[in-house]
């Protein structure tokens, strides 16, 4: 019955032919698809193919610094003979060197722990915002978004001055006689956690807030009315209903955090190991393009599952908005 | 000749075999994937007619309207307007305009720019546009709101802007999709009469989609009652109410009591019907002609049934039962009487006097009675 | 119904915002520090701002960044809006799944991967690296953000507005420019602002995509930060923060004014 009702109000989207196309403006409306499609194909998808290709090449002291180059300088036959030189040596190398395995592992672990920490910090904020008087909610929302507009680099940089051994945090704790020795936080994993939680907090709060704000407060009142104490009402009603926000927020934090470069580089120092930094060093310091390509390919494979999950969540949210 | 109910005015082109149809749906089918919204439907609408498409949501009435406007193309069949096949003509080249259910007022334009939008598209000279817009504003009594934006108007005002915008181009046909759906009850009743006056004044053909039977009955010359993409009956409001041709229509418009039965005997003027429990009903001929012994339904409106504590001496049809429920509604009282065979009959009595002598109450024995011409026999 | 705003809620919001804003506030405060040490207060001074404006390297980088931001944000807004239209308006076309994947994936793609892959593309097609390549890279990753912002507006767009326009005689292209575009314009503008800020902000992708002579401000700041924390950098950061904050505040105040006016209008309309 319900699907029939929908059909009357507006024809089901699956059946409705693209409206403008049908009306003879076919070419113009096709451009709307074709132009961004081609752009993304060329600047987003093709580059990944190239990354994969180069990850199968060997380093060379040349420009570009890998071989075979696989172009048509030697004609078609040269292009195809080049294929024989492609191999999986770089991947073998990655598995043999424990450094890479450890970098991947710590990246995933750090990203996971940071995601949980961000959720723990972000949930009370989002919850408080959603329960705030409706008049000040837009202001609170703006305050959460505002840091996001200021430079990521600057926000990470700001923490250096705070976390340094002679930094503001240590000065404060020493003057309050809470500690006698300055704490070493900068250039440790703790600093990375702080940096990720701080930088990605808006990404967690926003989806949480939007799912909590949509929730009808009378549900909680109904639960209480039916004899459910507040804490139980939270776990049985509020939290399950905010799960889409939780999932979206966690993915938005976890995926970029795994490949994060700026935070481990500036706050983590040289002792900490994360894959984004490893890739950067492999590329810029060692100029080993094939190996850094292989590192990127494996990182991408590692992230494909969460990225697909993220896309699904986006598509579903879009469906619900309709 | 007896006529059904009251006739509003002398406008009955559908009775004239020589009248030229203005809008014709010719065996039109519309499918959305597997779902058939409109099924092999044929329908004729005449010039200057106020025509209503009435049905529950999902019956295909909006799809019909959207096909006329050009937003959907029929999967099969033809739609003709003034003799011209509309197939392939995009909405922006069709001489019909639509008033949308949501009004669809352009939020970034003032009232006058909204009204002028269609005129600008056809390249009308500026002074003429101004004149026409002023005329339209006067017509819907919104002169002092010309410079406002839609969000600065009340619901009723927005409705009138939408109306003015859709008639500004003087379309051959005005399509109205639930034109009064968003208004509250009181405003709706007022606006119904305004719409009728406007249609008279402009001499346009109106096709209105509605799910509100009262609205359709009030405004329309004829009503098409739709169900599952098919037209169940096309008739004037009194015919629809007093002479429905099917159980669906009888049920859909107003309240009705249905008696299942078989035709026992048919004479020149009357038909005798036997109910399952053996009760006899005599009805005047009319309605559906059916063979003797055929299974039929006798449909009768509640207000045509009398309830009394004693059997009326002159009644041709009287059935005995017990008062099961009473609802006092002020202007009338509705009785539910459970007949001795178990069927519940709904009867309504106008409260013509302030006090009732010998009032019936719950569980009283009671008689329901009605005249032989009070109901219709339905074969389907 | 007004829900109770409990002490717990107020506390968590206060602490949360303190966490979000304290580091930025400290950074701003120490940009006015007399002392060369960033963490020891030596009295108020604006000398670092003066020296900042004499730092030709930083100024050049700022200029590059602004040009890159303006161009890439504008192109990205056009492409992203088209992408959003394609996603919401065309429910079925060949490769739609791939297309929506390419729109959503860059939102979460680690910068190092995007940067590396774009660089390798530029090398493969023999394109000299410089400002052009940075612009191309920025268009690619910011257009997806624009697409998402515009798309979320398009989803709630009342299609009957377009139908009404066509019904009144406007052909599709005219309908788009006279009705659709003006109505979704606020979303397009915020998409542009987002793209501009992301471009202004980006370090990693720019580092990969740029070549000699095209150093952006984040790249410059990064290279100086690696050498040590200086008040001059604090001053540069403060200026950037000030510009963005003023921009956002102006935008939101204008927005709020419009909203308040709208509510007043609506109330007035209700009264008749």
From TrEMBL, chain C:
This is ABC transporter permease subunit.
């Amino acid at each position: 019955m319900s699907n029939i009702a929908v059909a009357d109000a507006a024809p089901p989207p699956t059946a409705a032919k693209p409206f403008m196309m049908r009306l003879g403006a076919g070419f113009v409306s096709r451009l709307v698809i074709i132009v961004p499609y081609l752009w993304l194909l060329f600047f987003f998808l093709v580059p990944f193919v190239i990354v994969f290709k180069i990850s199968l090449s060997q380093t060379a002291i040349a420009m570009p610094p890998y071989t075979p180059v696989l172009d048509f300088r030697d004609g078609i036959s040269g292009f195809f003979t080049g294929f024989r030189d492609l191999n999986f040596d770089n991947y073998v190398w990655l598995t043999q060197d424990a450094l890479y395995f450890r970098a991947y592992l710590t990246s995933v672990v750090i990203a996971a722990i940071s995601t949980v920490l961000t959720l723990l910090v972000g949930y009370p904020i989002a919850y408080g915002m959603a329960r705030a008087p409706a008049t000040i909610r837009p202001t609170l929302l703006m305050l959460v978004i505002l840091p996001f507009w200021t430079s990521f680099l600057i926000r990470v940089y700001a923490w250096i001055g705070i976390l340094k051994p002679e930094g503001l945090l240590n000065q404060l704790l020493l003057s309050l006689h809470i500690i006698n020795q300055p704490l070493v936080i900068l250039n440790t994993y703790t600093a990375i956690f702080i940096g990720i939680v701080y930088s990605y907090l808006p990404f967690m709060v926003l989806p949480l807030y939007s799912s909590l704000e949509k929730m009808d407060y009378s549900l909680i009142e109904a639960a209480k009315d039916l004899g459910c104490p507040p804490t139980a009402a939270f776990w049985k009603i509020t939290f399950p209903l905010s799960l889409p926000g939780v999932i979206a927020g966690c993915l938005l934090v976890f995926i970029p955090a795994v490949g994060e470069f700026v935070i481990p580089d500036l706050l983590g120092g040289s002792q900490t190991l994360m894959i984004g930094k490893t890739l950067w060093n492999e590329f810029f310091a060692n100029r080993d393009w094939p190996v850094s390509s292989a590192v990127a390919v494996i990182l991408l494979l590692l992230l494909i599952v969460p990225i697909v999950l993220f896309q699904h969540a986006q598509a579903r949210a879009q469906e619900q908005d309709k | 000749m007896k006529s059904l109910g009251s006739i509003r005015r002398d406008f009955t082109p559908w009775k004239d075999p020589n009248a030229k149809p203005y809008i014709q749906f010719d065996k039109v089918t519309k499918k959305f994937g597997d779902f058939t919204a409109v099924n092999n439907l044929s329908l004729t609408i005449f010039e200057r007619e106020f025509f209503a498409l009435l049905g529950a949501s999902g019956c295909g009435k909006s799809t019909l309207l959207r096909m006329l406007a050009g937003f959907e193309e029929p999967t099969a069949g033809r739609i003709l307007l003034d003799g011209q096949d509309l197939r392939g003509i995009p909405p922006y080249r069709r001489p019909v305009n639509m008033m949308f259910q949501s009004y669809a007022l352009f939020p970034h334009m003032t009232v006058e720019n909204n009204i002028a939008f269609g005129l600008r598209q056809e390249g009308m000279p500026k002074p003429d546009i101004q004149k026409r817009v002023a005329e339209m504003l006067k017509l819907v009594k919104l002169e002092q709101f010309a410079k406002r934006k839609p969000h600065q108007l009340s619901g009723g005002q927005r409705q009138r802007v939408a109306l003015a915008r859709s008639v500004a181009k003087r379309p051959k046909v005005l399509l109205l999709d639930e034109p009064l759906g968003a208004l509250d009850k009181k405003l709706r009743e007022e606006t119904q009469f305004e719409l009728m006056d406007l249609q008279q004044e402009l001499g346009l053909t109106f096709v209105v989609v509605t799910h509100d039977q009262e609205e359709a009955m009030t405004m329309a010359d004829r009503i098409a009652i739709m169900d599952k993409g098919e037209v169940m009956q096309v008739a004037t409001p009194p015919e629809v109410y007093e002479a429905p041709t099917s159980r669906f229509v009888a049920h859909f418009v107003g309240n009705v009591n249905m008696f299942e039965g078989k035709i026992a005997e048919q004479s020149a003027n009357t038909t005798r019907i036997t109910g399952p429990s053996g009760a006899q009903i005599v009805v005047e001929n009319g309605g559906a002609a059916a063979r003797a012994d055929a299974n039929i339904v006798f449909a009768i409106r509640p207000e045509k049934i009398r309830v009394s504590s004693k059997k009326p001496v002159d009644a041709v049809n009287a059935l005995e039962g017990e008062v099961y429920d009473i609802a006092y509604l002020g202007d009338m009282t509705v009785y539910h009487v459970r007949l001795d065979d178990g069927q519940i009959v709904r009867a309504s009595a106008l409260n013509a006097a302030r006090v009732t002598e010998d009032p019936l109450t719950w569980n009283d024995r009671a008689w329901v009675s009605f005249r032989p011409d009070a109901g219709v026999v339905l074969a389907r | 119904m007004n829900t109770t705003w409990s002490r717990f809620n107020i506390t968590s919001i206060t602490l949360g915002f303190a966490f979000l804003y304290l580091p930025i506030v400290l950074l701003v405060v120490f940009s006015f520090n007399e002392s060369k040490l960033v963490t020891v207060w030596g009295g108020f001074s604006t000398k670092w701002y003066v020296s900042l404006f004499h730092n030709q390297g930083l100024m050049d980088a700022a200029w590059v960044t602004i040009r890159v931001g303006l161009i890439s944000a504008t192109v990205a807004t056009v492409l992203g809006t088209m992408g959003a239209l394609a996603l919401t308006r065309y429910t079925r076309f060949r490769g739609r799944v791939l297309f929506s994947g390419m729109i959503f994936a860059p939102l979460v793609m680690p910068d190092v991967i995007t940067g590396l892959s774009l660089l390798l593309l530029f090398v493969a097609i023999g394109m000299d690296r410089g400002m052009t390549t940075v612009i191309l890279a920025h268009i690619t990753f910011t257009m997806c953000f624009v697409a998402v912002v515009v798309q979320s507006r398009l989803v709630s767009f009342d299609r009957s507005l377009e139908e009404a326009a066509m019904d009144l005689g406007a052909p599709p292209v005219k309908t788009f420019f006279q009705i659709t575009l003006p109505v979704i314009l606020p979303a397009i503008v915020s998409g542009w602002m987002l793209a501009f800020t992301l471009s202004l902000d980006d370090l990693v992708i720019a580092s990969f995509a740029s070549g000699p002579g095209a150093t952006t401000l984040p790249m410059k700041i990064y290279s100086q930060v690696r050498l040590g924390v200086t008040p001059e950098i604090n001053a540069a950061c403060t200026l950037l923060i000030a510009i963005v904050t003023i921009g956002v505040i102006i935008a939101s105040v204008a927005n709020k004014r419009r909203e308040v006016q709208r509510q007043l209008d609506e109330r007035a309309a209700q009264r008749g």
